[in-house]
Specification:
Length: about 160
């Protein structure tokens, strides 16, 4: 895995925090850098990444930062069925997700219509609909082209994690 250059995002992260009225802290900036490198990361993956640059960070501190950033609208939390909450920096564009039923990889899918809500329910039941969260499930390219042998390799490498 290649390491992305965080230097370009660091000042950016700080200004995003200021614009949202949040205090700029190392852990907040590092969480944003981690999410820029690994979109759709679970909290534990973010924690592991942040600890590389801030070794004294606690798991709870990272969880708190993720909560703060999510409430501030800087980070979006998605909860696909059967997976822990996943976090990403791509917010406010009404994009959707496609998730592999075999390996669990998550990819972004642009909104089919281009604005929210892109699905109109047959009856709105008195609600004013703001958005539709769509999760597509299927087999990713790797899993689809994989033979039985490759699939079992995937399972082994998952266990090793
Ligand atoms: Zn897959
Ligand atoms: Zn996404």
């Amino acid at each position: 895995m290649t390491t992305t250059q965080p230097a370009t995002l660091a000042p950016d992260g700080a200004s995003v925090l200021r614009a949202a009225g949040l205090r700029v802290t190392d852990s907040r900036v590092q969480v944003m850098i981690a999410l820029a490198a690994i979109p759709h990361a679970g909290a534990d993956a973010v924690y592991a990444r942040v600890r590389e640059s801030l070794p004294n960070t606690s798991r709870q501190a990272v969880y708190n930062v993720l909560g703060d950033l999510t409430r501030a609208g800087i980070v979006r939390r998605i909860e696909p069925a059967g997976q822990p909450g996943l976090f990403e920096l791509r917010v406010g564009d009404n994009h959707h997700h496609v998730i592999c039923t075999n390996c669990g990889v998550v990819a972004d899918v642009d909104c089919a219509v281009g604005h929210a809500p892109c699905l109109t329910p047959s009856t709105e039941g008195g609600f004013v609909i703001a958005e539709a969260e769509v999760t597509y499930w299927g087999l990713c390219g790797d899993c689809r082209s994989g033979s039985t042998a490759q699939v079992s390799t995937n399972l082994i490498s998952t266990k090793e994690k």
